[in-house]
Write a structure and sequence with these properties.
This protein is an alpha/beta fold and about 290 residues long. It has two domains: about 230 residues, 2-enoyl-CoA Hydratase, Chain A, domain 1 (Alpha-Beta Complex); about 45 residues, Lyase 2-enoyl-coa Hydratase, Chain  A, domain 2. The protein contains 13 helices and ten strands. The chain starts with a helix and ends in a 10-residue tail after the last helix. The structure holds acetoacetyl-coenzyme A. Acetoacetyl-coenzyme A binds next to helix 4, strand 6 and helix 6.
Length: about 290
């Protein structure tokens, strides 16, 4: 069985231990949930643990995205995606670095043939298959693959000292995980060209003005603010939240006419859920909704 399979087997056990039992069992469950990774830490936080928190934790290499780290990140995101008690996810790094890019030492001796045969870096796109909303909370460097991972998330918040950049050009290559595509859609051609062709990073302030990030917070309170926002998202119906994410993401892929058609069908389909009925009934009855479509 794969390690992912093993983790999925254990997760419900850990959850029931947390919900029903003694401090020792809770501590043991926490240890199990954080001790299974080498390059990241995971936790649940927010109201009743409904926010999944992933912290990239490879400080000596400024969270450079080696294969092991990416494997763990994708496994943790999948794990939270499959956890019915989690409604939203926050991904963060350290105050110095969200991530300084793909691991250059790991890539140094790769060749075209193996890149092509293995479709190198394509597996990073698994992050975009996660159906629950993900907030990237970026402090410090988000360079190359670091900036690209943040752009695969749904919302980016920046600490006031954050730096976003695509410096691949300075090491003789180009962005390979969205820097020429998602960045261009996010900030427009001239600014993306400037970042990709000069390799010079931009500040949090510039990233905010250019629309790459939606908010800036003081570095020390960034994660807390991101969790607060994720907690708000997780307070809504999970199925409707996911439909909303899917529909918003379609704006990147479809023409306006097709996108509007998709949105309309998704909107109409929300009327097949219990939560849509409950949400509107709760409004009319002036009470809080009780979501059941988990
Ligand atoms: N890969 C591997 N190791 C890295 C790394 C990376 N991307 N970034 C930093 N490190 C390592 C350094 O080699 C160093 O390790 P040692 O102590 O063993 O020498 C350690 O992290 C600390 O780094 P620095 O001493 O360089 O720290 P600094 O504060 O002086 O500089 C920095 C910080 C400006 C971020 C600098 O480390 C840097 O420029 N890093 C590389 C950034 C980069 O080019 N990223 C793009 C990678 S390619 C890519 O991502 C392709 C893609 O599209 C997916």
């Amino acid at each position: 069985m794969t390690s992912l399979g093993v983790m999925q087997m254990f997760r419900p056990v850990m959850r029931s231990m947390v919900m029903t039992s003694s401090p020792q069992k809770i501590a043991m469950a926490r240890m199990m949930s954080t001790g299974q990774y080498e390059f990241i830490k995971t936790d649940t936080t927010g109201t009743e643990g409904r926010v999944g928190l992933v912290t990239l934790n490879r400080p000596k290499a400024l969270n450079a995205l080696c294969a092991g780290l990416m494997d763990e990140l994708i496994r943790a995101l999948n794990d939270f995606d499959n956890d019915p008690t989690v409604g939203a996810i926050v991904v963060t790094g350290s105050e110095k670095a969200f991530a300084a890019g793909a691991d250059i030492k790991e890539m140094q001796n790769r060749d075209f043939q193996s890149n092509y045969k293995e479709n190198f870096l394509e597996w990073w796109s698994n992050i975009t298959l996660v159906r629950k909303p993900i907030i990237a909370a970026v402090n410090g460097y988000a360079l190359g693959g670091g900036c690209e991972i943040a752009m695969m998330c749904d919302i980016i918040y920046a600490g006031d000292k954050a730096r976003f950049g695509q410096p691949e050009i300075t090491i003789g290559t180009i962005p390979g995980a969205g820097g020429t595509q998602r960045l261009t859609r996010a900030i427009g051609k001239s600014r993306a060209m400037e970042m990709n062709l000069t390799g010079v990073p931009i500040t949090a302030e510039e990233a905010s003005q250019w629309g790459l990030v939606s908010r800036i917070f003081p570095a020390a309170s960034l994660v807390e603010e991101a969790v607060k926002s994720a907690d708000k998202i997780a307070s809504h119906s999970k199925i409707i939240t996911q439909i909303c994410k899917e529909s918003t993401n379609a704006a990147y892929e479809l023409s306006l006419r097709e996108g509007m058609r998709f949105e309309k069908r998704m909107f109409q389909s929300t009327f097949a859920t219990n939560d849509r009925k409950e949400g509107m009934t709760a409004f009319v009855e002036k009470r809080k909704p009780n979501w059941t479509d988990n």
